[in-house]
Design goal:
The protein is mainly α and 109 residues long. It has helices spanning 2-39, 45-70, 74-108.
Length: 109
């Protein structure tokens, strides 16, 4: 049983690192594309940037959800829970911004 627990912890910790890495990478690429689109005066810059940020936050939120598997202390669970709530709120706000940006762009086209 201890072997299974160790294997589960190893797999979950590796997955957390991979998801965090992918999330950071997606946010960096979205930010660089946002700078490029801003310089080009692309009218969809905000929309594209918000979509990239939302995707990066989704990966980071996934890593936090996985983190709940390996925490054992109530204090750690509360901290992870707060982080999940904050990231979920950020994701909700970004999706709201995407919806509003799309609504503004549609009448112009």
């Amino acid at each position: 049983m201890d072997l299974l627990h160790t294997v589960l912890n190893s797999i979950v910790n590796l997955a957390i690192i991979i998801f965090e890495f992918i999330g950071v990478g997606v946010i960096i690429v979205a930010g660089l594309q946002g700078i490029y689109n801003y310089i080009r005066r692309d009218e969809l810059t905000r929309l594209k940037l918000a979509k990239g940020m939302a995707m990066g936050l989704e990966f980071k939120l996934g890593s936090e959800i996985l983190r709940t598997v390996v925490v054992r202390d109530l204090k750690e669970i509360m901290i992870v829970g707060c982080i999940i709530l904050l990231r979920a709120a950020l994701t909700f706000l970004i999706h709201w911004e995407i919806k509003n940006e799309k609504a503004e762009i549609e009448p112009e086209r």
